[in-house]
Design a protein that fits this description.
The chain is of the alpha/beta class. It is built from 13 helices and twelve strands. Helix 3 packs parallel to helix 10, helix 4 packs parallel to helix 5 (127-134) and helix 11 (289-310) packs parallel to helix 13.
Amino acid sequence: MSFLSATLSRVKPSPTIAITTKAQELAAKGRDIIALSAGEPDFDTPENIRDAAKAAIDAGKTRYTAPDGIPELKQAICDKLLRDNTLNYTPAQVSVGTGGKQTLYNALMATLNPGDEVVVPAPYWVSYPDMVLLAGGTPVPVAATLENDFKLTADALEAAITPKTKWFIFNSPSNPTGAGYTRDELKALTDVLIRHPHVWVMSDDMYEHLTFDGFRFCTPAEVEPGLYDRTLTCNGVSKAYAMTGWRIGYAAGPEPLIAAMRKIQSQSTSNPCSVSQWAAVEALNGPQDYIAEHNKVFVRRRDLVVAALNAMPGITCPTPEGAFYVYPSIAGCIGKTSAGGTEVTDDETFATALLEETGVAVVFGAAFGLSPNFRVSYATSDDALTEACARITTFCAGLR
């Protein structure tokens, strides 16, 4: 339609939401669907957090707040960043948004001009490039391949930086691969960034607490203090605390950037939900023991899925360090035809045929910028994962 913004033509709807919607539509028609497409823990929000929200409602804490967060939540975020990441921030350096996505979007909107480039390791979370495009910038995907365990190398980062580069977006553990960077691997990247003082760092730490097998999480400004003044450290309560629907994300960084983000938020959504903010205070300040308990479940599910996928013909699946995703390669399936008659020409046709023929919903790799792969979210029950893997096994065995 001619009255729509030309900017809209630069972006596409979220593929993960599109796949989930299609799976829901098939389920509504009576199909037996197993959805492995949504990045959402299946645990209930812990009771202490729910109780804090109820108490906030009963205390009448249901009115407008400051546009980018109540003082109590900003202080809780500062305390968390110091406790977990040895990063020292003041409340004036903190922005709270309606989910992690809003804080990232606010920062890009506040800083990007036409021609500005944003380096994004691929595979990437589907929203990064489109948010850059909406903000008027140019995403520059850089492949982090299976051969390098889906981690960006220092040489690849160096080669991608130009005089036009404004941001480097970093995500560890990664959505969609679950790959986590060790301190040494991250230090190799920060050494590159130190040599390019015009490049800012946006570190998406959303899966910080979802790490396995003794992996130690670290974040760029922690590894290289010299980047502190040009790093935006982003996080939220969605994944670690099973609070996806509460919609609370946050970021900490230089005061002028936080003030610019606040200006944008004050004219778009204004404050995040007041009740959710009080729940987030309890999440950050309260007991943390259930995170380790949840992670034990995630490790069991990860190992189940990785073992099953690696036993399938044509599929290779590395074992990730964190998050709740795996990103198997289907290179051995390309060029074959499914039992239902679909020629598998790429990962999108693979995922489409898998959904239509077996009822298993996964997200194809092209959506994340690296093919031929697909993403599985194992944040669902063991029974559902076992059945899904059995169906995928049958599907792959039927390829000819």
